[in-house]
Every structure is written in C-alpha cells, then in structure tokens.
Amino acid sequence: MSRYVFFYKLNSKQGEEHLLNDLVSTNKFEKSFANFLTHRRAECGSSYKTTYHQVIKSILTDFNEILPSEIHEIVRWYENNVYGNNFNCFREKEQRVAALLKESGIELLFKITSSSASCYAFIFQYGNFTDRYKINAIDENDDEGSNIKSYDFIRFLEYVILLMCKINEAGLEDIFDYPDSQIRMIEGIKFSYEDDIKLHKLIEDEFNYIKKSWVKYEKKRNKGIDERITPEIQTVYNACFFLNACLEMIESIKEENKNILMLHS
Predict the structure, then answer these.
(1) In Å, how far from its chain's centre is CA 7?
(2) What CA–CA distance (Å, rounded) separates 260 from 148?
(3) For the residues 3-15, what does the mean pLDDT come to?
(4) Helices (H) and strands (E) in the chain, counts
C-alpha cells in the first residue's frame, strides 16, 4: 500500500539540458548519480533493474517517455545529496530538493502524504478510471507509478472532481461549500461532459458502490462496532481534499502539453 503519492510535471527541454548535466557530473554533488545507483543495486539485490546507462539513454532519446522507476531514482538521488543522514531543517531541505528537481525539468505539482489509506484511495480511483478508459501512459509492473500524457491525466482529474462533487452533494459526510472560483471551474467541467453517457455511468456506478459501503460503515460505527476503513470510505472522508487537489493540478497543467509522473512511495 502506498504511503505517499507525488505528482510531477516533466519539462523535456530542461531535462535534456540541466538534468543530464547533473547526472553525468562526478563532482557537482557529494555522491554522483552513477555511484548512487551502484549503492542502490547493492542494497536491493538482483531485483533492482535501473541502470545508469539506461537512464541517460531515456533522457537523450525522449525525456517524456522516461520510466517512473527511473524518475523515482533521480528523485531519491537528489534527496540523498540534500538530506544525507541529517533530517534537521526538514522543510528547508524539502524545498531545496523541489527546487533542484524543477531546475532539472521535474516540477512537483502536488503530493498526498496525509495517510497510507488516503493515498491508496486516490490510486484506487485511478484504477477505476483506467479500467474503463484507455489512456496513453507508461505503467510498470512493480507499481512504481505511471507516466501519463497530460490530456489523459486531466480527463482522470475531471472524473475525480465530478465524483467528489456527487459525494459532497449527496451529503454522505459533512457538506462543504465551493468557493466562487471553484464553482466556475466545476460548472465548466460539468458542461463539457454533459452528454458523455459513458462517464456518467462510471460515476454513477462508483458513487452507488461508495454509498453502499458508507451506509454499512455508518451502521456499524453507530453501534460501536469497529469496521475496517476501506478505500471507498477514505474516498468519502477525503472528498474535499481530493477535489481541491484535482482542481489545483488542472490549473497548473491545463495550458501545457507535458507528461505527468504519478509516483507511489
């Protein structure tokens, strides 16, 4: 189960220039990328597949087609050089890592770190969407994450927004109000999918399943019976947070044709 989910926006020009220079350098950082991967292979054993030459090849060939596992190792490498074994001043170091990544064409869009269950609930909705819709994405068998074309990622975010609105407006949990700026965006999304029968059926089916799970959960909770909090229940609890996250990410990528990395950690 994922503990964190990070969303990054790729910039191929910066990746091919700045990032490549960082990765091939032997003296800019305390530990070079090649040495870092050597240590990672020693730690992980034969299951570790990422190689230095393959990462460099991915960047030179087409940065937008890079594997999620390769981006994961690049992120870990920057973190390793910034944090080392000292996690003092965590927020400042976190910001430094984010700045290094952005300079290298890997810009942090959003992160879900509130709980493992919250992360899993969001990924659960991604699975629901991609079960019904074919999208242009690179997924890896070891569940490192996904490299998704931005137009498909926006479609997924819009699905989540419409589902969260339905959950909120049904009053399953505390109803939250939408700020004026959100109302305009939400109404625009609703209008654009007004005649999309397939999407409406997906949302209706998922909502009914969530509602059924929620009613069962509430009945047991009201009787003082402990009940496992499933991804469906976490989706209800996180409806406001997921809605805000999706709207924020759409605002950051709607005018750009760039790939999006969704990394699980």
Answers:
(1) 4
(2) 5
(3) 90
(4) 12, 5
Min mean pLDDT across 47-61, 85-99, 200-214 is at: 85-99
Neighbours of 227 (CB within 10 A): 14
In b/e form, how buried is each residue of 130-164, taking b as 16+ CB within 10 angstroms? beeeebebbbeeeebbbbbbbebbbbbbbbbbbbb
Q: Which sign, positive or negative, has the C-alpha torsion 151, 78, 76, 22? A: positive
- Write the pLDDT tens digit of every residue in 110-129: 999 877 788 889 999 999 99
| The pLDDT value given to residue 85 | 55
**Higher pLDDT, residue 16 or 57:** 57
Q: Of 35, 69, 64, nearest to 52 (Cα)?
A: 35
- What span, in angstroms and rounded, lies between the C-alpha atoms of 99 and 105? 10
- Distance separating alpha carbons of residues 107 and 105, to the nearest angstrom: 6
- The one-character DSSP state at 19 is I
Q: What's the rounded Cα separation, in Å, for the pair 247 and 190? A: 13
**Token pair of 41, please?**
């292979």
Residue 39, Cα to own-chain centre: how many angstroms? 27
Global pTM? 0.90
